[in-house]
Amino acid sequence: MKILLLNGVNMNMLGKRKAEFYGTDTLAELENKVKQYGVERGATVVCAQSNCEGRLADILQQADCDGIIFNAGAYSHYSYALRDCIECISIPVVEVHMSNIYEREDFRKNDVLQSVCKAVFFGEGINSYFKAIDFFANK
Predict the structure, then answer these.
(1) Catalytic residue status for 77
(2) 1-21 b/e with 16+ CB inside 10 Å = b?
(3) Up-side HSE of residue 33: CA atoms within 13 Å toward CB?
(4) Is residue 90 a contact partner of residue 63, using CB atoms and an 8 Å limit?
(5) Which of 22, 37, 75, 129 is catalytic?
(6) CA 80 to CA 90: how far, in whole Å?
(7) Which H helix or E strand runs over 40?
(8) What is the domain extent for residue 26?
(9) The domain that contains 128 carries what CATH number?
(10) 69: closest CA among 50, 41, 97, 89?
(11) Residue in 37, 75, 97, 129 annotated catalytic
(12) Known catalytic residue: 37?
């Protein structure tokens, strides 16, 4: 099984921003941990990140994998372009968030991607990503 781990806007700032929400791991450290977790469950995880909405849509549309784990960052709250992109592709997408978006600022409680994703895991730091791996591994 091949899984794309796609991180969106500002996820490259992990390890530098709000450790109480995002922990202290850098993006590279998070990716390595998720890759290792995937290997332990029989999955190959490839990683990508972009701060650009259009580039994220390009990556989603061109993906060649069995499943996508997507943390769109703030785009989750308002990007109808990414929502429509996910709806158009045939690869199942699982949305993840490290923090609990429903216990933060009001604008974060709106999640426009959720309705087109197969599952959403949030509020458990890196464990949200691990749960997404498990979702695909158990299918």
Answers:
(1) no
(2) eebbbbbbbbbbebeeeeeee
(3) 13
(4) no
(5) 22
(6) 18
(7) helix 27-40
(8) 2-137
(9) 3.40.50.9100
(10) 97
(11) 97
(12) no
In the chain, the amino acid numbered 34 is: V
Question: pLDDT tens digits for the chain (139 residues)?
Answer: 999 999 999 999 988 877 676 667 999 999 999 999 999 999 999 999 999 999 999 999 999 999 999 999 999 999 999 999 999 999 999 999 988 877 777 777 789 999 999 999 999 999 999 999 999 999 7
Burial status of residue 53 (CB atoms within 10 A of its CB: 0-12, 13-18, 19 or more): middle
Count of domains forming the chain: 1
- Six token digits for residue 120: 């959403």
- The amino acid present at 91, given as its one-letter code, is I
What tokens were used for 45?
A: 């995880």
